[in-house]
Design goal:
This protein is α+β, with helices and mostly antiparallel strands. It has a single domain, classed as Double-stranded beta-helix. Helices cover 16% and strands 27% of the residues. The chain contains five helices and 18 strands. The longest helix has 18 residues. It starts with a strand and ends in a 6-residue tail after the last strand.
Amino acid sequence: MVKRLSSCGVETIIVDITENNDFRVNVVSDLEPSSSGCVDDSLRELLAETGMLCLRMPRALTDEEFKSMAARFGPIKDPIALTRDGTRIRYAPMRQDLESGRVVADGEMGECSFGGLHADRPLLFETFHCDDTYTRKPGWASVLHARELPPSGGGPTCFIDMRAAYALLTRKTRETIDALRVVYHYNNEGAFESRQSSRGPNDVLEDVCHPLVRTHPIAGTRALFLDLDRAKHIVGLPKRRGRALLQSLQDHAEARAPACEHHWRPHDVLVWDNASVQHKARGNFKVGEARSFWRYLVAGDTPV
């Protein structure tokens, strides 16, 4: 179904909207690159409703254009956080350059790790997660702009619907987990055997705590909110029991929640809602081929 929306009070954009509650990436066309930087309530509400949007771009954007495009969804997050001793540090650049296809030689990373499953492509994140969960106010939306894609194809971004994952739980399970809170850290020190922990200068960051079930800041919907790449334990439960519960909820989401993939086109801008969905990359492209993006985070509030 095609829907027309007014963007920033001037433009008319065309959105290919899902029907029958299908879970997929909605495509926005006729949205011209600009440097206006206006916050667009219609796009924010559409993202809150659907979880993911693809903005088709006719060409590669300049950094100013891409930053302005991301700012249509809200203020850009300045990635500054507190350390354990209360010092404020920059834990990432405002615009991150994600070289997920980069091949790393043995020993090149030293003692650092970014959490990728494979030593030769440590920047390729192939486990479902949410972004920025190790900060007090995680980025609400992630905005990626394709810079270079694998020539042989492959490398889609995959999503699962964590709103549906919550709704599909039994009533008893929902009542059990509704008030639980999860502790997160940049380096969760191998809390989950199936995942690699990040390790490096950001180890100095403080622990933070978020609800396991999150209420959406715009839509008011409820969703499972968990990220096993960063989670350490559940407050008030023995660590082993809490981690087993988190793993079982993640397994439930991956087995039962609706899922979809975005197959990238050159210059796509892909936006997703970290309060509603989890994402991961698929590594089904040739080792050595580039898969690179620019990323901005849209600022979010403290999860509740």
